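Researcher: Let's do a round of design. I'm pasting the structure tokens now; please hold your answer until I've finished.
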């Protein structure tokens, strides 16, 4: 009986420690302050937040909100010459339930298109090749960045601009990439 009480007490302590750590981490990460202590704290918890998908960037709100809509898609070229357009899940095209489960894809695609994250491009291309592999093997993957500026009208309303596209990465798929 005593060992079961000890185990229960230890379990409660571990759970409370996790909740306390998590609440403090979320507070430190999400409060938009730039000071040395907050930066040290964010550096410490950054690996955990990136791994768990809990990272949040405040650039959607301040100091200068994003002024473009963007998404990443791929052109899949098969060895037989056929092509297919493929894209990561886009939140505006999903139901509320699907958005909940696929939010990580939005964050991943937002970060993927940044030139500073070019090291991710080959892995993303291999993932897309494996996902789209079929009777005819995938030959090449072309990653395409799409964007549309959000234009401020004279009356203060916003209107989306025309969509533009830029092919930013091409990957030649090898047979071992499809395993």
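Researcher: That's everything. Go ahead.
Model: Designed sequence:
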């Amino acid at each position: 009986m005593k060992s079961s009480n000890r185990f229960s007490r230890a379990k409660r302590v571990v759970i409370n420690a996790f909740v306390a750590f998590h609440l403090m981490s979320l507070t430190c990460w999400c409060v938009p302050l730039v000071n040395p202590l907050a930066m040290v704290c964010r550096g410490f918890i950054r690996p955990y937040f990136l791994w768990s998908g809990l990272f949040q960037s405040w650039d959607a709100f301040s100091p200068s909100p994003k002024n473009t809509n963007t998404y990443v898609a791929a052109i899949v070229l098969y060895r037989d010459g056929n092509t297919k357009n493929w894209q990561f899940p886009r939140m505006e095209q999903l139901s509320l339930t699907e958005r909940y489960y696929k939010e990580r894809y939005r964050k991943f695609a937002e970060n993927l298109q940044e030139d500073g994250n070019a090291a991710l491009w080959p892995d993303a291309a291999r993932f897309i090749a494996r996902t789209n592999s079929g009777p005819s093997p995938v030959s090449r993957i072309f990653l395409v960045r799409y964007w549309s500026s959000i234009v401020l009208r004279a009356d203060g309303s916003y209107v989306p601009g025309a969509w533009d596209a830029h092919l930013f990465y091409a990957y030649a798929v090898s047979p071992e990439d499809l395993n």
